[in-house]
# Entry
Amino acid sequence: MKLWAWAPAALILAACATAPVETRTAYPGTRTVEHVETHFGVNVADPYRWLEGDVRTTPEVAAWVEAQNAVTRAYLDALPGREQIVSRLQALWNYDRFSTPVARGERLFFTQQTGLQNQPALYVQDGDGAPRLLIDPNTWVADGANAIGSFHPSPDGSLLAYTVQDGGSDWRIIRVLDVASGEALGDEVRWAKFTPVEWHPDGRSFYYSRYPEPPADEMFTALNYNHAIYRHRVGAPQSEDQLIYTRPEHPRDSVRAEVSDDDRWLVITVSRGTDARYEIVLIDLNARNATPRVLIAGFENDYQLVGVVPGGRLIFLTNRGAPMGRIVTIDPARPQEANWLTIVREGEHVLVGADVVEQQIFARYLQDARSSVRRFLMTGQPVGGELALPGLGSAEGFRGSPDSPVTYYSFSSFNRPRRSIAMTSARSAAPCSASRS
# Structure
């Protein structure tokens, strides 16, 4: 056993053993209020209800938190051996982390974070050129609490939509920049929450999900109802965004949109609650003023859009009639379950995800607490055996284009930090000579 691996724990124990004993810590005072609620006939006092106010909008709560932090900070800063612990932990954390790259056009987009940065920064690589920095959220605010929530390159890679996460809030601000120049455009979309950003095939507009703007004094406390999908056109103000889909008769439902690989369908996943039980709604992007139509009704099972079979059938991963998961194709013109075709049958292990790359399906399974990846033709015929991964661990990604021979995935295990790996040929599954770790 390598004793150095236990150094942080040993230092912490030593610090605790020699730390001064505080018998009279001067904690800040906390006022109480007369607040009582009745639940199922029982009166429940809540004298600290005022502390539920958001720290960003309630000055009294912010002052209370600052005072509490000052007490804690004073104690922690005085601990013997603290600097040794900090030094050791920073040495262990100080290595680069890369996200799985996203390819659009001739460009690759990925995030990179050194172990001592608060937030990952976003980079782009043009062809074989050197990566260049696009966005560094570590420069946004002094405390480093704001981050890039997600990033979404346009189909040709010329534009980038990204979401700003403010201090851990679920609210997102969507902004757009020009990738070639790195300059931010004037777009600012607010009140987005629980949403992907999905580009329209025109590359000049995108879909997103949002709630109505809450009252100013209830920004972080108001209940969110009437989730809706909008279409934003780059360069236009948010006030001109087009309402695409909502469910006013079911205001608690959540909705999110994806564009099918053939650019034909806007596939809307509707959720009710937090269970993986969805309805699927389609909008024909080739039809003017198309009416949304339900493809799969009833919140009974999980459905994940995987891709499109040449000819137009949509591919879904589902647990309908298959608790371990299977992959089916559905004809939008004949969506009844009797017309579904199973192309990857339920297996011994749980099917957790699937993607289409170079007209092959990469299916990811959870097998004995590790990832197992297998490939299938679009007809469901297996291609080779289990994909060779770097070891026993967790693999994610395998996203790409149905027509591209390149895919990317990430791999990590108990003794290997996450690394991103490129495969130059999905059909041969040959690893790329360059990978990021």
Observations:
- The chain is about 10% helix and 40% strand.
- The chain has a mean pLDDT of 90.
- The radius of gyration is 25 Å.
